[in-house]
């Protein structure tokens, strides 16, 4: 405990300009509008390369969840720049949502690259409040690297279950807490406060598999995997899907 606190203090000292900007109320608007869209775009390029095989496997059975009309209506929570579009099947009708509307450049770029999809609308909405989406109106919900930063995981999962039609599926790929006895978890503990501040509320130590197990899915498939990114304490991940 003492070692964690000492190292946290050292890290906070290194990041003191950001803490000062946060104290002055200047960091959050800058982070949302400039820093986070920029840095997330760079991180996603690396993360997509490392996780490509996992995503290809994850989304392979998306067509199985087409609705009675034969169409696949998909809602993505935290779309960001649209790095998942490449994995969706042709003709899929996509509704994009994100609490941060400042990803226009990378989102437009990925839409142009993936014209096999039909983009229906973009909603500025938090995962916990998808009130603009009617209940039971989508066949699949996708959420990748988002549950780490929502204010309430349980509320977000309740919204997921509300908007899904019966028999629809929720797909996820998220970084999670490491084993508590590991060095990885130690460094997650050290980095936690500064990481959360710098990366727009991202929490390093959430045990998201527990939230998913507590949600009311009729079927749930979870796999624990490793996605190693250079110098980042987010190697442990979970990937899978749940059926309503």
Specify the number of helices: 7
Q: Order of strands side by side in the largest beta sheet? A: 3-2-1-4-5-7-6
User: Helix proportion of residues, in percent?
Assistant: 25-40%
Summed up, the domain count is 1
Overall pLDDT metric:
95
Q: What is the number of beta strands?
A: 7
Strand content: 15-25%
- CATH C-level class is Alpha Beta
Q: How many strands, what sense, and barrel or not for the largest sheet?
A: 7 strands, mixed
Q: What name goes with the CATH superfamily?
A: Vaccinia Virus protein VP39
Oligomer: single chain
CATH topology: Rossmann fold
Q: What sequence of helices (H) and strands (E) makes up the elements?
A: HHHEEHEEHEHHEE
Query: CATH architecture, please?
Result: 3-Layer(aba) Sandwich
Spans where pLDDT lies below 50 across 5 or more residues: none
* Alpha-beta classification: alpha/beta
> What would the principal axes of the Cα set say about the shape?
globular
Distance between the termini: 41 Å
* Structural Rg: 18 Å
Protein name: MET7A protein
GO molecular function, one term: S-adenosylmethionine-dependent methyltransferase activity
Domain Methyltransferase type: 75-172
Organism: Daphoenositta chrysoptera
